[in-house]
Every structure is written in structure tokens, then in C-alpha cells.
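Example record

The entry below shows one chain as it appears in the dataset: sequence first, then C-alpha cells.
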Amino acid sequence: MGGRFNVDDALARVRTGDPDALADALRSKSGIVIAAAAKRLQPADPLIAELAPAFVRLCEDPIKRDPGCRGKIAIARALHDLVQWEDDVFACGVTLVQSEPAFGPPVDTAAELRGVCGMAYAHFVRADALDVLARLLADAEHRTRAAAAQALGDSGRPDASALLRYKLLIGDADGEVLGTCAESLLALQRDAAVGFLTGLLGGDDRGEAIVLAFGSARCTEARDAIVAWCEQVTAGPRGRVGYLALALLRTDAANAYLLDKIRSGGTTDALAAAKALATFKDDAAVRAQILAAAADRAPRERAEIAELV
């Protein structure tokens, strides 16, 4: 690249897909340009060899060269997707913190990067994967903790369940982290996990996360546990989380419970149950069942339910 480096010109060249333009971009010191080029690489492309050196370059004066960590994240994702392990990227990225000024306290923009690198440890079946993910599960950033929880489930290792159980027992300030832990535990040991998770159900954020995880995983054997939870908590979480979890199970038994709420429950419960089932309103049979269950309700309630489907 002769002359003064211009980001807009470099990005325009990258968009052409020209190999020389991609090579120049990957050898630059601009995170945004490197990110654009990294996303265009295909398997067996010789330019893959440029990714690790580019990552190292962006770690030098990182806030100036790679604000937001966009380049480093794109490199880590590209190597992960291309099934290429690079110590200089993943071993470094999993511990990298990039604190950047913001309107208020500084922001750590490397949270996603640590999560991506943690995923790589699991997906590449690294011997020290559990040690790395244990540290990330205690990371200061919730996005990193959630990624670590997902990676533990993706690892397919039964012994990863111990970390997930411990995290669920001690809790987390973020519901997404807890929900991901529950989903990963169900993925690793479904039968054993149901009893353990049911024992943790309560009217707190952890209970909501577990109930929603049951639904997301279509854990039909947890239907009775979800119903019992719905009947113990207040209307807010029951309608927002419990009824949705039941709808996500997509079983006749779960639907029957919700249809009964539409038919004879209080107004708040009826509307919440209808809204949950309306998640699948594209299914003509489900739509017909909702409308039939609402047929004997007051005109205004019937109209509100009809609007949902």
C-alpha cells in the first residue's frame, strides 16, 4: 500500500475480495480493516497464516489500533470457524482485558473476545479446557461468563457438569448466565440434571432462569415441575416465564394447562397464557385452540386474546 493509509479506501478494496487487497488489509494496523478482511477468508486460504500476526499487532497499542476489539474478535472467530488453533490468539485472548474510556466507568471491550477464545478451548478439545473455562465462569463480565457456560455444555464432557452445578448453586447476578448454565447442564446429563435443577426452583432469578431453560431445551419431563413453580410464584413471573416455558415444550399436556388458564383463569393469567401459546400462532391448530378456549370469556377479553393471534 503506497502512500498514506486510508481506512475507507482499504475497506473498499477489501469488499472487492481481491487477494492482494485482503493481504494488505491483514498486514495493516487497523482493527476495523483487519476485521473486514478476516471475515472473508475461506478454508485453505493461504492468508489464514496472516491472522495470528495481525492479532499480535493489534495487541500493541490496542485502544488506538483496535478500539472495541473488533479486529481481535473477528480474528478469533475466523480461526475458530476455520478450525485453526493458534496459541498466539486463543491463549492470549482468553485472558486479555481491554479497558476503554466511556461516558462513566471504563468499559472492558474484550469480554466477547475472552468468551470466543473460551469456546475455542472447548471446541478444540484442549486438555486444559475446564481450567480455562472455570476462570471464565468467574469473569467480571456477564457476557464472558455466559459464553463459558455455553462452552462447558458444548464440550460434551460429563465432568464439565461439576462446574455448572457449582455455578448454579452459588448463583449469579445475571439471569442469562444462570439460564445458560442450566441449558448446558441439561445438554450434558439430561436425566440427572432435571432432578438437580428442580431442587433449585424458587421464586428468584435462578428459578426463572431454570424454568425458561426447561422450556428452551424442550425438557418435557419437567412439565410438572414447571406447573408446580407457576402455581407457587406471583402473576408476573408466572405469566412472563412459566407460561412461556410450558408453551415451548410443545406437548399436548403443557398446552392443555395453558388452554385451561385461557378458558377459566383470571384475566391476567388468561392473557398471559394466550400470549405464550401465541408464540406458535403460525400453527393453525394452535391458533384455533386459543380462540376456542377464549370463546366463553367476556367480549373485551375475547377481543384482546384474538388480537394476540
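Notes for this example: The chain has a mean pLDDT of 96. The beta strands are 99-102, 104-108.
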